[in-house]
Design brief:
mainly beta; Ubiquitin-like (UB roll); Porin; 2 domains; 18-stranded antiparallel β-sheet; three-stranded mixed β-sheet; 23 strands; about 50% strand; globular
């Protein structure tokens, strides 16, 4: 869905739609939802400093206890710390295995304290229809359809097996397997992926054409403690493009592109689905070695989340991407596809360099509540219970550019915009956003998107 050219003078017309919608949903949530337990003040003070005697996990019918306990810094034999326990709760939530996680202290013998971890599991295995949009566009021709099957918790160890096949726009298929933790205390992980798909080209130098890609990737990494990750990735991509566009690449033959890369991530976000506090940093270097030419890709993405007051937070992001060597068009950096600047959401830029800055102030309107939708029917069981619903809002500013190093060392043209929006917290899809962005010429656009912006 694309609604542009609304203008600042029509901003209040948008608000006339959004405000009643927010009020109606607020009344609905207030009438049917149970308050989020985390928002109810637990009497942690009387347990502070007491030695923890035991930790009990409840509600994990499929998930093994070890998957939950290994995410906790709190251990048996250490003093109770309320802040650390809350961090543990959020870290367990970030596994994406549960709709809800709560941790309760309970008095034990000899003035010690026990912890009860209660989880509500998500659906973990199901075939499902596919119907998704591409390039963050809502036009009907940009949608794909198909089917997939996922096991989100293989052997109860948080291993993930996925297979999907789709048609329509950018048709293709993929299969992947992720093991996020093996070799015990060494904390190793790996992910293997196979894919075959036809993609619409993104280059702005020609009309869009079909690129055929087939290949695989394998990532092997190590987790250092609770927040730091390093990995090495190897991949191979076979690329075929129409003959009339082969002048864009260094050889008229099909492309065979093996690559190897290293990466580093640091993640202290409180909740990945909607962070309000912490850091997320990612750095990577990838060397691509097609027989015709070689090139390297460098990337750095740093995000900071600052809790200003209670659940009011400021989110900041800086991203820099650079390419070195004879970089083909299919490895260029773009704005206007997966990365977009709100306010100029549908404007595209291309280059072998890219920089992005984003800022967003987030605040709650209706705090997240949990709702039961089973209505006494056993068919859905616990998977229809403890479903999160809530409403937040955000005020944002985005600016970014993509350019070629031959044009300038510093970009002269930028895409930018500012605005505000409503964020609806929903089960399974996590977040649905309705936003209004304004460009430097004070032209407005209505944006509908999913997931947190960053």
């Amino acid at each position: 869905m694309r609604i542009e050219g609304l203008g600042l003078t029509n901003f209040w017309n948008v608000m006339r739609f959004c405000v009643p919608l927010t009020v109606a949903l607020s009344i609905f949530l207030a009438s049917v939802a149970r308050p989020q337990t985390a928002d109810i003040a637990h009497d942690y003070a009387k347990y502070q400093g007491r030695i923890i005697s035991k930790i009990i996990v409840l509600g994990n019918d499929k998930t093994r206890d070890i998957v939950i306990l290994r995410e906790m810094k709190t251990k048996v034999g250490v003093p109770f710390d309320a802040n650390r326990v809350d961090e543990d709760r959020k870290r367990i939530q970030n596994l994406s295995l549960f709709t809800r996680v709560e941790i309760y202290p309970a008095k034990d013998e000899n003035e010690k304290v026990g912890l009860i971890v209660i989880v509500a599991e998500r659906w973990h295995f199901l075939p499902y229809p596919l119907f998704f949009r591409n390039e963050r566009e809502w036009e009907l021709e940009k949608w794909s359809y198909g089917a997939g099957i996922i096991h989100n918790n293989v052997r109860g160890l948080n291993n993930k097996l996925l297979a999907e096949l789709w048609f329509g726009y950018n048709p293709g298929g993929t299969a992947s397997y992720l093991n996020p933790w093996f070799a015990g205390e060494r904390q190793l992980y790996y992910k293997a992926t196979l894919y075959s798909m036809t993609l619409k080209s993104k280059t702005l130098k020609t009309p869009r054409f079909d690129e055929f890609h087939r290949g695989f990737s394998f990532i092997f990494g190590k987790k250092w403690g609770y927040h730091t990750y390093s990995n090495i990735a190897v991949s191979y991509d076979y690329i075929r493009i129409p003959y009339e566009y082969r002048y864009l690449i260094s050889s008229e033959s099909d492309q065979h592109v093996p690559s190897i890369g290293i990466g580093f991530q640091y993640d202290t976000r409180d909740l990945q689905e909607y962070p309000r506090d912490g850091w997320w940093m990612s750095f990577g270097v990838t060397g691509n070695f097609p027989p015709q030419s070689g090139y390297q890709l460098f990337g750095a993405d740093v995000r900071r989340y600052i809790r200003l007051y209670k659940d009011i937070s400021l989110a900041l992001r800086v991203d820099v991407d650079l390419a070195h060597g004879d970089t083909p068009f299919y490895s260029h950096y773009y704005l206007g596809y997966s990365e977009r600047m709100r306010g100029q959401f549908y404007t595209a830029m291309e280059g072998d360099r890219r920089s992005i800055f984003m800022a967003e102030c987030r605040f709650p309107i209706v705090p997240v509540h949990f709702i039961n939708l089973d209505y006494g029917q056993p068919m859905l069981g616990q998977y229809a219970n403890d479903l999160p619903f809530g409403i937040s809002a955000g005020i944002f500013y985005d600016i970014g550019a993509a350019w070629f190093r031959d044009d300038a060392n510093i970009p002269t043209d930028f895409l930018s915009g500012f605005g505000m929006g409503l964020h609806f917290h929903l089960p399974y899809i996590e977040l649905f956003r309705i936003e209004y962005g304004i460009d430097p010429q004070w032209k407005g656009q209505f944006i509908i998107d999913t997931k947190v912006a960053f």
